[in-house]
Amino acid sequence: MTAYGQIYHRLRKNKNVTLQNVARDTGISSAAISRFEHGINDITLAKLDPLLAAIHVTRSEFFFEHDYARATTQEETPMAVRNFMINLDMPFDPEFLNQSEYSSQDADVVLATIARRVTLFHNNPTQYNLLLLADYRALYAFLKHIHGVSADAELAEHNVGILQHYLLNVEDWGVFEIELFISASMFFSPPDNLQMLRIGYRKSQRLAASAQFRHLQFWLLASDFTVLLARHDLPGAAQVLTMLQQQKSDITLDGNVRVLFFTGWLSIAQGAVTTGEKICRSAIAIFRTLHDSRSERIWQGYLERILKDPTDGLILLSGGWG
C-alpha cells in the first residue's frame, strides 16, 4: 500500500518546494514533516491541510494521487485503473476563473492585486507566491498592451519567463499547473503556447483516470483553442481542435457538443462561414433537445458574436463551462 507520506514527498519534490519552506509556511517542524514523508509518524487531518496548501495541492487532488498510485502499483490494466478511480467518491469543486474576456478586466484592479501580491511575496517568498505575482504582472502588462498603453516589455518578458520555466520543468501537471497555464496562456507566443500545451497535456494524463478530474484535460484544450483563435493563429487552433476531437470518447455529452461547436467556429474563422454556422447551429440544437435552455442561450450568444468576427478576442477560460 502506498503511504500518504510517500505521496506528499513526491508531490513536494515535484513542486520544487523544500522542507524548510513548508516548515516556515505551516509552523510544523522540518523534522516532523520528514518523519511523515518517510512513514515514521502519521499526521492529523488538521495538519494535512496546511501542508497541502504549502505545496499548492488541494485535499481532493492529494487523495486522488494516493489512490491512483495505489491502483497503478498493483499493475492493473489501464481500464481497470480507470474503473477503480471512477468508483471512488472524490468531490472536486475548484475555484476557476469565470472571466470570459481579458479585455473586460480593469488594469487598475490588477495593479491593486499586484500590490497585495508583492507584500505577500516579501513576507513569505515561496514559489507559489512568486508564480502568482508573476502571473498578475504578466496580465497587467498584457492588458496595457491591448488597450494601447506602453508597458515595461522587459519586465513583462521576465514574468512570462518565470511562468514558462516552471510549467516546462515541473514533473507532473496537477490542478494548480492547469489553472496557471489557462490563466497565463494568452501571454505566451503561439509556438511556446502549443509546446507547453502538449507537454502539459502529456504530464496531466493520469488525471484522465478519474471521473472527477478527467474534465480538466478537456478544459485545458478547449480554453487554449479559444486563446489561439484570439491570437489569430488558425493553424495552432486547428491542431488543438484535433486533440479535442481525438479525446471525444473520454468526455461528456456536453463536452462533445462543445467540440462540435468549436469545429464550426474554426470553419467560420477559416472563411467557410455558411458551413461553420450550420455546424454551430447543429450543436446549439442539441442543447435545445436536451432542454438545456441556459447553454442554448449562452452558445447562441457566442455564435452571434463569432459571426461578426470569429477572432475578436472571445476567450473561454473555462473551456465553455463558465
Mind explaining what this structure looks like?
- The chain is mainly alpha-helical and 322 residues long.
- The chain has 2 domains: 83 residues, lambda repressor-like DNA-binding domains (434 Repressor (Amino-terminal Domain)); 207 residues, Serine Threonine Protein Phosphatase 5, Tetratricopeptide repeat.
- Helix 5 packs antiparallel against helix 6 and helix 11 runs antiparallel to helix 12.
Give the overall silhouette: globular
Rg value: 21 Å
The figure for the number of domains is: 2
Q: What is the CATH topology assignment of the largest domain?
A: Serine Threonine Protein Phosphatase 5, Tetratricopeptide repeat
Percent of residues in beta strands = under 5%
Q: How many runs of DSSP E, i.e. beta strands? A: 0
Please bin the fraction of helical residues. 55-70%
For the record, the CATH class of the largest domain is Mainly Alpha
Structure annotation, total helices: 16
CATH architecture of the largest domain: Alpha Horseshoe
Assign the structural class, choosing from mainly alpha, mainly beta, alpha/beta, alpha+beta, or little secondary structure. mainly alpha
- What's the helix-strand series? HHHHHHHHHHHHHHHH
What can be said about the biggest beta sheet?
none
Alpha carbon gap, first and last residue: 38 Å
Overall average pLDDT: 80
Poorly predicted spans: 75-104
Write the layout of secondary structure elements.
Blueprint (H helix, E strand, L loop, with lengths): L3 H11 L4 H8 L3 H8 L7 H10 L4 H14 L5 H9 L20 H17 L3 H20 L6 H17 L5 H10 L5 H14 L11 H16 L3 H13 L6 H17 L3 H17 L3 H16 L14
